[in-house]
Amino acid sequence: MGYIIAVAGKGGTGKTTITALLVRLIKEKKLGSLLAIDADPNSNLGEVLGLKTEVTIGSILDTISTNPESLPEGMTKDRFIEYKVQTAIQEAEGFDLLTMGRPEGPGCYCFVNNCLRSVMTKLIDDYDYIIIDNEAGLEHLSRRTTRYADTLLVISNATPVGLRAASRIRDIVKELKIKTKKNLLLINCFDQELEKEKLLGMDLNYLGSLAFDEEINQISLNGNSLIKLNKDSITFNRLRKIGEKIWA
Known about the structure:
The protein is of the alpha/beta class. The protein has a single domain, classed as 3-Layer(aba) Sandwich (Rossmann fold). 41% of the residues lie in helices and 21% in strands. It has an eight-stranded mixed beta sheet with strand order 3-4-2-5-1-6-7-8, sandwiched between helices. Helix 4 (77-88) packs across helix 5. It is globular, with a radius of gyration of 18 Å.
């Protein structure tokens, strides 16, 4: 099994941005084959990485659940799902991307979700590193992808509301019985060190903070990809220093 990094955080904390930068760093360091999974229903990891996503797992599930006649003759449903998942993987330079998306149809997804979890378990074995950009509730991590992660990386801002949300994410991981080896907290858009008193009882190991980065802000405002971010930007350099604590 590859090394799994699950990234989570409340909306607006920059988790997708940081996920994309970690993809770039793992690619830059040539650590091995890499699969990025966009597990947020508000899917935009592909856009941030400079890719246009056309097929998602959600659209595949819709097709199978609402049009069972779409299954090829002689092929079981689970084999068909496995085939469709493979075709949905986008290949880029140095990494692959799989977008979960959001099912839109009225059908029941219980069986297809169970099949998908089995397929994803097999797929994860094909990569050295898997990084998952999760929605805050982590339902995709439990229901569709895997019940295990080597590293849980929670992104937060420095506000009391943000820190409470980060602590709640850790609680949800425990409630869902998702096994994690390392549970880390990274504070974004904060140019100071967080007071230790604010970390009491969080059950997350504090990695440090990332200052506001105007270059990243401008890229986001212009709708461009973070692939264009200068490799010597302040955020990149900071992530390089703490990266091994995340993926090793």
